[in-house]
């Protein structure tokens, strides 16, 4: 199989996660490390005196993304490396879009993990136990879809619908609102945007 | 014929390699497996406390005594609190900040080295073919029974570790009796071999793999330039980034040699034994590596810059010029005009001389913020890469195992660096990483891999 398949599928599956990592995490490595080892430094305290929740959101995002990347990598990297070798896909009647389906499925799993992380942490913080249950059940649902249903197209569509819903939920949970979304999209309130970013 | 040339090259290579291995053992032994931060100046009372510590009391005992007295306080506090008058929270925060910075500064080169090794193993067939063994692992593993194979690997390990121990002690003795010229000559011989011979073999194999033709004059020019610049950068002066790049490359080359010539089971047992030896050699009061580090600190000299990867280099404005005669043959090879490390926090990083300033050194000024790098021995790079490379080389060509080992080593390195920020003395870098690496390798290879293979082949996602 060609190099085009390899690179295409690799970027489809890991591109967004890598972009998120490069633009949000790699630029602030110290802050992330501090969060992970659990010590809020003087610097963080000065930004948000006495408020733990924003840094917890950042930790939720980072850990969700980390889990997602590991899960995606472990499920897809062997398939990717096989795509560089010789072979014909679907020679025995399997769907010939095996690689592309796998790549999109990996992408949706990575992003879902990230959103689940945010929602889960919030649920633990605010002691909303039904949130945890819903996260668990959606995860089971998405996995069970891949197990049970042989139609990969249907799996993908359902998984992406769940992704959009979970994404909206995570957006509202982490403090976003329709107002802030509108301001962000219209690039109207620059100060507000920066303030939101920093306190995240 | 290509086979003959390959055979002759390999045979010659093996003979040379055994000779080389003796050098490389030496090279691998000294300072290879200890990880130390460039020393921060500590107040006198604290250093006396440390002397008391080194007089045979275990660190655990000392901590026990301290914690009895002030058990409410943060256990980090038993470490010298630095400049008196600093608030304790700030001190702890600075400790953690330096630890975190060092984590980042070392992740990149370790990752690069491992990437080079794994990329080579996966593409160049030469390094996974069995073509004999080193003279230090004479027992073969092609035996009929599992027990015999295990016994042979244990014996191989015993021989290898004894060779390493003897070489280390020999080196420490040489260093103690100030035979600098001998050590210097030995180091130059080893790096000559690495930079020229191993590079030549490596380049030859890579060209063969990709079926690229290269004529001898071009090859000679390339290898000569590469090797000569490498010798200059490593043993004399050069840009920091170039020196770091060369150190990474020679570590990768050495790791590839180990991966090729160590038989499978012996490699795993050797990795385990070497981390135990590292722990003992660096932490025990009479351990050779600890004595080496302490002697170097007493004499206010850097330890074999050719064998340590240093992540940053800073120099001071107010420092008196170092007396060259006091340095001996191991003259500091760094030019004070070299740029210092990039400071992502935007603090004023006062440039400082690389040698640790003792309190009371004439002309020294204590800066407020000491911007120092962290040093990691090349042997640590080598053994990390051997672990990951072996994981990539064995049998199934599975990437999950390789990635799991890679993550394990980075986690171990992170923990070791945080411990370093807390303890502020030379620490062994191998034990935690190699332990995690071995655990992750065996569990991933035997438990996770079959499971993930089945999942991936049916497009099942969990």
Per-chain topology:
The complex is a heterodimer of chains A (200) and B (462).
Chain A: H1 3-25, H2 29-37, H3 42-47, H4 53-83, H5 98-125, H6 129-148, H7 152-173, H8 178-186, H9 190-198
Helix pairs in contact in A: 1-4, 1-5, 4-5, 5-6, 5-7, 6-7
Chain B: H1 2-29, E1 34-37, H2 44-54, H3 59-69, H4 88-123, H5 146-176, H6 180-210, H7 216-235, H8 240-261, H9 264-283, H10 288-298, E2 308-310, E3 374-377, H11 378-393, H12 399-423, E4 427-428, H13 430-457
Antiparallel strand pairs in B: 1-3, 1-4, 2-3
Helix pairs in contact in B: 1-5, 1-6, 4-8, 4-11, 4-12, 5-9, 5-10, 6-7, 8-11, 9-10, 9-11, 9-13, 11-12, 11-13, 12-13
Q: What does the overall shape of chain B look like?
A: globular
In round numbers, the mean pLDDT of chain A is: 84
Unreliable runs of chain B: 1-32, 38-83, 315-370
Secondary structure tally, helices of chain B = 13
Low-confidence stretches of chain A: none
Largest sheet of chain B: 4 strands, antiparallel
Order of helices and strands of chain B: HEHHHHHHHHHEEHHEH
Helix content of chain B: 55-70%
Beta content of chain A: under 5%
If you had to describe this structure to a student in words, what would you say it looks like?
- The complex is a heterodimer of chains A (200) and B (462).
- By secondary structure, chain A is mostly helical.
- Chain A folds into two domains: 1-54, no CATH class; 55-199.
- Chain A has helices at 3-25, 29-37, 42-47, 53-83, 98-125, 129-148, 152-173, 178-186, 190-198.
- Chain A starts with a helix and ends with a helix.
- The mean pLDDT of chain A is 84.
- Chain B has helices spanning 2-29, 44-54, 59-69, 88-123, 146-176, 180-210, 216-235, 240-261, 264-283, 288-298, 378-393, 399-423, 430-457; strands at 34-37, 308-310, 374-377, 427-428.
- Chain B is mostly helical and 462 residues long.
- The longest helix of chain B has 36 residues, at 88-123.
- Chain B has a domain at 89-310.
- Chain B has a four-stranded antiparallel beta sheet.
- In chain B, 63% of the residues lie in helices and 3% in strands.
- In chain B, 40% of the residues are buried.
- The A-B interface holds A 29-30, 33-34, 37, 39, 41-42, 70-71, 73-79, 81, 98, 101-102, 105-106, 109, 142-143, 146-147, 152 and B 89-90, 92-93, 96-97, 100-101, 103-104, 344-345, 397-400, 403, 407, 418, 448, 452-453, 455-456, 459-462.
